[in-house]
Amino acid sequence: MLMLRAAVLVFLISYSAGLSLAEAPRALDGSCSNRAFTLAESIRCEGFTANSDSGLRSSSSISSSWSSSLSSLPDAPDADSIEEFRGALPKGFGRQTKLRMVTDRFSQTAVGFVFGLGGLGAQVSTALGTKINLRVGGSFLNVNPQVIEQGIPIDGAVRLRSLYAGVDVFPYRSTFHISPGLTMYNGNRMTAVTNIAGGQHFSINDIDYVSDPTDPVHGWFDVNLGRRFAPSLTVGFGNMLKRSANWTLQTDFGVQFIGTPKFTLVMNGSVCTPADGCTRIQDDPQSVADLKQQQLDVNREIQILRFYPILTTSLSYRFGHKVSTIFWR
Question: Which residue in 68, 72, 65 sits closest to 48, CA to CA?
Fold first, then answer.
């Protein structure tokens, strides 16, 4: 290292000396204190002095001046000194050190509209770290279906209400994410009423009945879709806080573990059969048994809804973009 420095300095001296001989009358005016110099001019100013009586000082004086300067330079560090320096650096900093951009906590926010099986809603996301986002949102849906099932006219009301929170974890360098979460409010519920006109045929538990014209059958049913609080797990693609774009799409699908849903069926009025004539439902053992069995069958069929499905797509806009740099191996 010392030999290389000396060679560079000798080259600069020789080059500057040649320039000074050719340009000294124009470049040097006897004073070096009030000018800004290039490197070559600084060397000439150090090695030569222009005056009308003695001319230019020879380059041998320059070599002597720079030789004394070189002798004062420190020696190049040895291998032991280099290793000692590396040992003093933070852990993980070395030959294989790379740079990674990280997102500051709460430095970015995104707001989006969401639609899916739970209806329409909105959600907000903020950064908890480079690969973790916090997401909070809610959705709602109102539907009033009217259907006829086994001769029973049903005037229904579907009310879906939910509030949820979760974290989007990005395990890979892509938009794929895993999102554990919590449904903080599960207000999903289905209700319906029925009024069966007198003389109309209908079935309960696959048994045929006729609504009494003098006391028509009427009733209601209710489906309670699980607990108010429920854990959830989804996977999906997209990142509401994507760095390369402000507008983003995100899709998620998974399940809520809402517990056991419950179906309740209540019917009043009178039914008629060819064998027994017309009897109030509550007083007819066969009608009461058929209603209970119908309720058990429906409850058995809806058990699968304890894993309530989630399917959503959102369009969101990101605000803010702040990152920091850290070292990592």
Answer: 65
Domains belonging to the chain, first-starting first, are 2-76 (no CATH), 102-328 (2.40.160.170)
Q: Nearest to residue 215, comparing CAs of 152, 148, 278?
A: 278
What six digits make up the tokens of 144?
């009033």
Tell me the per-residue pLDDT of 297-327, one tens digit each, with 9 for 90 and over: 999 999 999 999 999 999 999 987 655 545 4
Burial 224-262 (b: 16+ CB within 10 A, else e): bbbbeebebebebebbbbbeeeeebbbebebebebbebe
Distance (Å, whole) CA 101 – CA 99: 7
Tens digits of per-residue pLDDT, 203-233? Answer: 988 888 999 999 999 999 999 988 989 999 9
**pTM (predicted TM-score):** 0.62
- Give the integer Cα–Cα distance in Å for 7 and 21: 22
pLDDT digits (tens, 9 = 90+) for 43-91: 445 444 434 344 444 445 555 555 555 555 555 555 555 555 555 555 5
Q: How many whole angstroms from its chain centre is CA 221?
A: 41
Helix (H, G, I), strand (E, B) or coil at 200: coil
